[in-house]
Structures are given as C-alpha cells and as structure tokens.
Amino acid sequence: MSTLSQVGMLLANTIGSMVLLIVVLRFLLQLVRADFYNPLSQFIVRFTNPALIPLRKVIPGFGGLDVASIVLALITQYLLLAILVVIATGSINIPWVSMIPWAPVALFSLILKIYFWGLLITVIASWIAPNSYNPALILINQILEPAIRPIRKMLPDMGGLDLSPIVVFLSIQVIEIAVLGPLVQAVGMPAGLML
C-alpha cells in the first residue's frame, strides 16, 4: 500500500469513525431517554439533525425507536466501509452488494465497543473523581445504566463494592467471541475493516 493510500485510510477511518460514533450516540441517547439539555446531547443533536430530519420524513419511528437514526447509522457505516475498501484496493470495482451485510455487523461491533469503553471510563472515573458532574460522564452513565441495572439487582450486596461492571465486561467479551466472531465470518467481512 502506498503512502498516499495509508494517509487516505487514516483520514477516512478517523473522520468516518467520529461521524459514525456521533450518529450511533444519537440513537443510543434517544433509546435510553438521556438528558436532552446536556451540552454534549445538544452537540450530537445539532450535528445529526441535517441528515436525520429529512430521513425522518420518509422513515417513521416504530415502538419508541428512532428507526431513522438506525438507518442513518447503517448508511454511514456502509459508506465508510466502501470508502475504506476503495482506498485499500485502489479501485471502484469492489463487491458493492456483498458489502451490504457488513454494515450491520460492523455497527454491532461499534455498539459493543461503546459499551466497553464507556464502562471502562466510568470505572476509572469512579476511582479518580467520584460523584463528578462532568457532562460526558453523566451521558455515559445514562447510556450504561439500563444495561447495568438488571445485573446490579441480581448480584448480592457486597458492602458497597459494585461487581456489576465486571459482569458486563465479561458479557461483552462473550458476545464478541460467541456472536460477533461468527457473524464476521458468515458475512465474509475482512477482520481488518472492523472499526
């Protein structure tokens, strides 16, 4: 791969991943009914509204889910994968149709990573700055709480020690091994394209 291709891959991957992360966060924040007035929520809404508002006119919500934001995330993921494959191969003659199942698999992987890194950030922040009112930490906690709460209720009281993050970490790892790995192989996606 030439130097220009490597630079192109780096730029496309970085910028595309950031845009994709913001779009997925928009879906997750709406899913958990996070604080709309949080400054980070406001940024995410303003960033995604230009693409999401026209899409909502065509794709309605269903059962409280913002289906338009899921579709926008899938489109963004597909375009990012296509750009990366075009840059890597140096040709636009790529398997456009066979890449369609790659987008949901890569999106599933990204959501698992959001939960993994979000949980890691909250665990470290609870040691360094407990009871912090940082807007980012508040949003991360709001995203993670629906996944952690049921596990926390099932575990016995350990005298102030919360072991639920360990269970969630292990669950994420099991899902990556037992579900995500076989999915990547089933759709024929190159492992190097996982973001």
TrEMBL record:
Pfam families per UniProt: CCB3_YggT
Keyword Nucleus: no
Keyword Transmembrane: yes
Annotated GO CC locations: membrane
Record's keyword terms, sorted: Membrane, Transmembrane, Transmembrane helix
Transmembrane segments: 7-29, 67-90, 102-129, 163-184
InterPro entries xrefs: CCB3/YggT
Protein family membership: Belongs to the YggT family.
PANTHER family: PROTEIN COFACTOR ASSEMBLY OF COMPLEX C SUBUNIT B CCB3, CHLOROPLASTIC-RELATED, YLMG HOMOLOG PROTEIN 2, CHLOROPLASTIC
Protein's UniProt name: YggT family protein
Organism: Thalassolituus oleivorans MIL-1
Lineage of the organism: Bacteria, Pseudomonadati, Pseudomonadota, Gammaproteobacteria, Oceanospirillales
